[in-house]
Amino acid sequence: MIGLLKGYTGLSGAIMTQIYLAVYGNDSTSLILLIAWLPDAISVLFVYTIRDHFLIISIVLAVFLIALNLFEKLERRIYCICHIDFFPCNSPSRYFLIWNVKKQAIDPPTRITVERPKPKAVSPKQGDEKSSLDAIFYKPERGDDYTVLQALTSIDMWVLFLATFFGLGSSLTAVDNLGQIGESLGYPNKTVTSFVSLVSIWNFFGRVFAGFVSEIMVVKYRLPQPLMMTMVLLLACVGYLLVTFPFPGSLYIESIVTGFSFGAQLPMNLAIVSELFGLKYYSVLFNFVQLANPQGAFVFNVKTTGTLYDRAAMKGLTKKDLRRSSVKDLTGIGTHCYRLPFIVLASVTFFGALSSLILVIRTRNFYSSDIYKKFKENTEN
Fold this sequence. Notes:
This protein is an all-alpha fold.
């Protein structure tokens, strides 16, 4: 369910691009208006029509958008628009609510009144005062419900945070700079638009893959979830190296690889947090891990890639005997503009893969067992 829900987020970017091109052409001002009213209107229109088979429709739509991008070079194009942008109602919470109501109907709670003796006044013991500290050092088994304090003092949590910081931070940087990369390598604007659509489409495939395939691997083959995250991060490294050492058409491949790896990381993060630390404080712990996302983007996008790109662009102006004030936008042309930044991104992503591999080693015994056994027992009972 996580992979499906997050997949719609990735696919919506490609859909919005096609609607924008069909309705407004290249009017950039109208784009802001479009993204302001269209998602809300579609959500209201389709909110009561969601069914499970829309997954198949969404995959067909993604394939169609890929084909559409291949034929976008035609002089006159006809855009066939099918926008499925809604909030899926078949969420896990709905099924849990139905199961809980049925369970209460079958086995209603019995009220028992017991006279309790009045508690005697007992002086506080030193051990009671140290109970919160004991919880830090004596943590529950992996998969049980951790408290927030227990999770935040867990080595597993900080290793996952580190992998997310390097992995998702680098991926966000690559996606955010895709347009300027295409411009630096000399691609026309229409082709750059295709790159953006490809990233969104394969972002969808990555999220659905991470949601469905990874769960099959965990349940059927007992493969650790962090191992699949490691492989996804290594795949992202390959995409960054395609920018560092480009060849004709390499940016198409880079868009697919980066979009897929970027999309696959988030559902895996969601799953790993729930599997290792339980569901009682899931929302708090998940949002803590997601703090690594904007922090990584700030470090690698603003402070690293932005600084190195501006420096390379300024060198290009200097060679032309121009000053910064003589141009409106600081734009670098040539493969050298993004070479060093993406070497850095590939390096830190590889370090993130190593961090994820450490988590694989630490959790291999946990994932070798049936991690969903207790949930099955609760359902049967």
